[in-house]
Each structure stands twice: as C-alpha cells, then as structure tokens.
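At this stage, I needed to go through a protein sequence along with its fold in token form, as given directly below:
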Amino acid sequence: MGLLKGLLGARNLLLVIFVPLLLLPLPVLHPSSEAACAYVLIVTAVYWVSEAVPLGAAALVPAFLYPFFGVLRSSEVRPFVAQLPAQVPPGPVKGAQAPPIRIHPALPLSTCDPGQNREPSLGTEPIITWKDFQKTMPWEIVILVGGGYALASGSKSSGLSTWIGHQMLSLSGLPPWAVTLLACILVSIVTEFVSNPATITIFLPILCSLSETLHINPLYTLIPVTMCISFAVMLPVGNPPNAIVFSYGHCQIKDMVKAGLGVNVIGLVIVMVAINTWGVSLFHLDTYPAWAKVSNITDQA
C-alpha cells in the first residue's frame, strides 16, 4: 500500500521520464520524419492530457524535439515562440484593458492651448502599467497556442498528416457508411492538433479519390467529414475559445477532455444520422453523380 502511494505521489515525475523512453522505439525503429513527428506529437499530447508538467512547458516540447529529430529547423520553429504575443486570443487579456473613461468634449478644449509651443511630457504614469499587465497576461496560454501552431506545422512539413490520410485508402473494402464513420472519427482526432484548413487540404482530396474507388457520391463522405473537422473541443490548443475558457483556471485538462469527448460523440451521432436520413434525400446521396466522373475522364486524357 505504501509503495502504491509512493508511485501515485511520483506520478508526474514517472510520466515525464518514462513516456519519452517507452515511445522512443517509434523514431528509432522507423527513422523517418513522419515517425519522429508522431513521437513528438504523442509525447506532447500525453503531457497535455496528464498535466504531468505545466501546459506552457509541455507546449515547448516541439520547439526542442523538432530540430533534434530534423523535423523542422530551429529557424522554422522560432517564429512560433518569438511571435507569441501576436497569437494570443484577445479574451484572456481583457482584464488588462483600461476601464472606459467619459470625457466631456469641452474638457480638452479648455485645457489644451494650441497657441503654446511646449515639449511633450513623458513623465506621467501610464494607464496600464507593466506590473498590471503581467498579472493579467496568460503567458501559459500564449505559449500553449504557439506550441499548437508548431505541432500543426511539423505535422504538415514532415508528411505525417498526408501519411495518415493515405492510410484511409485501405478502407475501400468497407461499406460506405463505415468508411464515412471512420473518416469522421479520424479527422475529429487530428483536428485537435492540426489546424482546420490544413486538415481539410489533406483529407478532402483523398476522400474524393476514395469515393471514386467505392463508386459512391463524394458528398456522402465530404459533408460529414467537413463538419467533424470543427469538432476540436477537447484540448485548449484545439481553438481559441477553448484557450480562453482554460485561461481562467476553473477547469483542468481532464475536465475539458471529459466534456469535449461527450460533445464529439453527440455531434458525431447527429452528423451520421443526418447524412443517412434527410441528407440522402436532400443531396441525392444514393446516386453517383455525373460531375463526379469528370475527374476520371480528365485524368485519362
């Protein structure tokens, strides 16, 4: 019993040490940029979900490991850290803004004499002091958002996202509804770490080719997958509103994962039911449209 308590007490330390070691065979046995990027992505995700280290520290993992494994150069990772203030969502820093001040229009006219030539005064106290700004600025969330952008850039540059997308071509032997369901589940997971435009750019062309192979209406897969790409609600890095909610400190990562997982499941069920009921009648998804054959004719020409 005492040993179990000791292990639980050292949980965070054990996760920090053993998670990278246990996953190390992935980039060692498969020396490729895709495997290295997957290694960094999984380690960072485990640190985020378990909160073994502060979120800001976990978000810096790609900044150190990407150059180490050669996924991205240091000069390519640096902008995500050096330009962090431009990436912070405006919500968390509203507390640092000055309160509204009502000034009568006659006040500046009575105090400013345009006829006098005086040097500007630089000794007055600012409306917002640096000390006040430091108290209200969510630096951890700023670094978290920057780390999310770095992960997305590495996934795209290394080819990991493209590799994941091409693995979907092996689903051609499944029924159309199963292909759509698995594709929706996959993109809802990927979009937690990769930006929506990048996810759409990678997956939609592959799904179009898969639809041609299965000889089904491409809209049957494209519509639900496009909707599920917006289901990034489980992690603070998923989208700026998540980061704003998390910055107030009233919830932990595990709370967001629990709530977000339920939202994802409900949304996935609604999308699948809708596309297989009124979606079929509205978009005529039970037929293979003539416009879907144009790409095949063009390719053969």
Summary: The chain is about 65% helix and 0% strand. Residues 32-83+136-142+153-158 form one domain. Residues 89-104, 295-301 have pLDDT under 50 and may be disordered.
